[in-house]
Amino acid sequence: MSSSHSTSRRIQARLRRRPAGDQSGDTVWLFDLDNTLHDASHAIFPAINRLMTAYVARVLGCDDATASRVRVDYWQRYGATLLGMIRHHGVDPADFLRAAHEFPELADMVRVRRGLAAHLRRLPGRKIIVTNAPQAYARAVLDIAGISHCFERVIAIEQMWVHGHLRPKPDRRMLRRLLAQSGIAPHRAVLVEDTLSHLKRYAGTGIRTAWVTGYLRTIAPSRPHVVAAPEASGSRGDAAVRSTLDAEDRQHASHAAQEHSVTLVAAESQVPPAAGATGLSPQSQPENAPRVRARVPNRPAYVDIKVQSMHQLQQRLRRTGS
Questions:
Q1: Taking the CA atoms of the chain, what radius of gyration do you get in angstroms?
Q2: Does 184 reside within a domain?
Q3: Tens of pLDDT along 286-299?
Q4: Backbone angles phi, psi at 229, to 5 degrees
Q5: For the residues 109-121, what does the mean pLDDT come to?
Q6: Which segments carry the region annotation Disordered (predicted)?
Q7: pTM (2 decimals)?
Q8: Is 201 helix (H, G, I), strand (E, B) or coil?
Q9: Is 23 within the bounds of a domain?
Q10: Separation CA 289–CA 287 (nearest Å)
Q11: Which of 111, 128, 181, 321 is most deeply packed, by most CB within 10 A?
């Protein structure tokens, strides 16, 4: 094979890998995946919770009820069940992630809005996926959604190790390292997320934030759910819960309470409530707990852009010229 022909093939291969769409401007978009670019609340998040519970049950040799309690406890203590399983049971992260994201029917579970790829192509700037999901799952979802060609890279949880420790979102060290390694100044980056607590965590870092609300769900009824302290069980606990809910009905939920309710929508990507905060996560809910559209509060001060979809994001930028 001639040298010129070999060079031509290498150039063509690089062109094929170049992301599609408008790459102009200085902006670098860091896109979350689940519930940001597709509707994960519909089928994927409930399935992840079931698979994680089954995995914990196998490792601990316990029943599903005990495994579910352990899963929720680790999520609340460490921000992700995986981190607790690594720390206390020495599980292999790759094995855990594979088991928790094994979906033979994934193509039937992914839901995207029509025209998503076109809106992403029109959005000016570089685009990178940054997700707490594993690499194989993320790429499969992108392929099914027909948008993999829009992104130059996929940063998945396997790439989120910092100094020997797994540091998924919303860890600041991980994101600072990602930006430094990619030569991206923080003020050029825009983190696009459905998870409000992630955006809040990155406030003050110089990174701009965009909050996507179109796929958010809450556990029905559409308000924060209160859980009694572990010692408040039986009739005393039930009475405490009823009293709190009655008070909410009389006073209406405050802005902060509404904001908290919106964070209770994702699976393992969510940050657990702060100490002393009340609320049940989706991880602790029965599989048949009804979910309804979230009542989304006004844009918090640490969110630069609030939109429902990529179409709205692209239109917003086109109107402002930014």
A1: 21
A2: yes
A3: 445 556 665 666 88
A4: -60, 155
A5: 95
A6: 1-23, 227-260, 273-301
A7: 0.74
A8: helix
A9: no
A10: 6
A11: 128
